[in-house]
């Protein structure tokens, strides 16, 4: 045995050595594969599969021009839904339009975009009026067009009165059009406690006249004017857009233009400024607070546990979409020092505290914005720039500087997915 063992020792050691090499080779392969798996896992871990951001989309000039869909919109929204048509990120449509109910706008968007849109994803300019519950049981005068009574009642108002109803009650007040006779008299409340401006009306002269009558008589339009009744009864206005884009080559008058007329008529008569109890619609902070709330509600409904930290507001108008997003971003950054804000006080009981830390503005070139017109950076130039925003908003060049400028909404979605490193399942 010993002899055999001695003779076989070289072979035995050779076998042992070869076995060790095989084991080492095997282990090295296992290590390499393990490292590759870890690297692959790490690379996937850097991609977010649950959203920590939300979209705020303007409609006119971003998704449509008038009634004509913008081609890039349908492509963009195919990227935002899964195979079951569910949104991969929270989305709210924030429009300054106010001439219809949310469900009708949701149905229109579903048809245009080819994806199912819920009314809970639609925010009209008047949507924040749901929070002003102290006016809901009172008699209010409403101005605008569309199904005003249905809209007001859907918002919670129990005694809305339209301009046409007021005109029928007081036929002697509207005499600009001599050939326009009033209809049948209807029974209305005599005291109007507030005026709600939903949007631009059809007959401006009638609306301007009767609203002035209500304001200068403390809500009793059949009485003589009393200029000493100041401040006047509350006025709540929705949609401050001076102009908006339709199929025409140039922008058209918006509700902001009507408000300019009303403000100047009131001041010309009384020598005092018309006061607003609240201004809603972009670019007001109240509008973005409410949109933020709707984004959070969507995320909660989908049981997305990750907080929504960043909002991306996609629009076509420097003075509304970009200004409003940047103003809200400023609010988010300074909210601890802004708790004495009147608007914040009104909203804080209705809206839960936001987890968002930023609101980024993304400007598209398919609507009002002209890429050949730049915002002046020089202070002297900015003083001479024509500001199309509302009277009660001061012009700040920093607020009309978008965070990003892209050709269209499809490019906006691609950019935001890239910025967020977002890879949906």
TrEMBL record:
<protein>
    <recommendedName>
        <fullName>Haloacid dehalogenase-like hydrolase domain-containing 5</fullName>
    </recommendedName>
</protein>
<dbReference type="InterPro" id="IPR023214">
    <property type="entry name" value="HAD_sf"/>
</dbReference>
<dbReference type="InterPro" id="IPR006357">
    <property type="entry name" value="HAD-SF_hydro_IIA"/>
</dbReference>
<keyword id="KW-0732">Signal</keyword>
<comment type="similarity">
    <text>Belongs to the HAD-like hydrolase superfamily.</text>
</comment>
<dbReference type="GO" id="GO:0005739">
    <property type="term" value="C:mitochondrion"/>
</dbReference>
<dbReference type="Pfam" id="PF13344">
    <property type="entry name" value="Hydrolase_6"/>
</dbReference>
<dbReference type="InterPro" id="IPR050324">
    <property type="entry name" value="CDP-alcohol_PTase-I"/>
</dbReference>
<dbReference type="InterPro" id="IPR036412">
    <property type="entry name" value="HAD-like_sf"/>
</dbReference>
<dbReference type="GO" id="GO:0046474">
    <property type="term" value="P:glycerophospholipid biosynthetic process"/>
</dbReference>
<dbReference type="InterPro" id="IPR006353">
    <property type="entry name" value="HAD-SF_hydro_IIA_CECR5"/>
</dbReference>
